[in-house]
Design brief:
The structure is a single chain. The protein contains two helices and two strands. It is mainly alpha-helical. A two-stranded antiparallel sheet has the order 1-2. Strand 1 and strand 2 form a beta hairpin. The radius of gyration is 22 Å and the shape is elongated.
Length: 190
């Protein structure tokens, strides 16, 4: 074996090791600019990767974000009225003061999301996971929360009048000055 052949073999081995290390590295879930552009232009972006994107204050009414990855995204003060967010990943997202009236959030993952002051009137959150979410002052009047996992979410000052909570798991939730589905004021875990 000559030196030239040995150097070529060593270079191949180094390249293979490098590719192996890179392929096992944790994937980056930060937003893809092409997906942001598609959302802004077409208002249709199912299965898009929009994690950590700043989408605050935008008009996304009736947008399709079904199964979209929106972890840690900033959607504060955005209009998401009647948006399709079914099965969307919204863990840690900022949806404070967002308009989610009539939005479809079936099966959405909202763990640790900030929904303070959001308007979710008539929103569908069937089987959504809201553990650790902040819903202080949120309006969920007539919302559908059947089978939702609420866990230790903060509902302080929220309005749940007329909401359907059948089968929802919310024994650890903070319900303090909260309007309950029957119109009574709840004070638990204050």
């Amino acid at each position: 074996m000559n030196v030239k052949s040995l150097a070529a073999d060593l270079g191949t081995i180094i390249l293979m090791v490098f590719l192996a290390v890179v392929s096992f590295a944790a994937p980056s879930w930060a937003y893809l600019q092409d997906d942001v552009d598609m959302l802004l232009e077409l208002r249709d972006c199912p299965v898009c990767i929009l994690s950590e994107a700043d989408l605050s204050g935008q008009d996304f009414s009736q947008v399709n974000l079904k199964i979209a990855e929106l972890s840690q995204a900033n959607l504060s003060q955005s209009n998401l009225q009647e948006a399709n967010l079914m099965l969307a990943e919204l863990g840690g997202a900022n949806l404070s003061q967002a308009n989610l009236v009539g939005a479809s959030l079936n099966g959405a993952r909202l763990q640790g999301a900030n929904l303070s002051g959001a308007d979710l009137t008539g929103a569908v959150l069937t089987q959504a996971n809201m553990s650790g979410a902040n819903l202080q002052g949120a309006n969920l009047q007539d919302a559908e929360l059947t089978g939702a996992i609420i866990g230790d979410a903060n509902w302080r000052g929220a309005n749940l009048k007329g909401a359907n909570l059948r089968g929802a798991i919310w024994s650890e939730a903070i319900i303090c000055d909260t309007v309950l589905p029957d119109g009574a004021i709840g004070d638990r875990n204050c």
